[in-house]
Amino acid sequence: MARIPSLLVGLIALLATPAVARADVETSDPQVAFNNACRTCHSFRKGDHRLGPSLNGVVGRKAGSVPGYPFSSAMQSANIVWTEDNLDKFITDPDRVVHGNAMKPYGGIDDAQQRGEIIAYLKSISGK
Question: Is residue 45 domain-resident?
Answer without folding.
Answer: yes
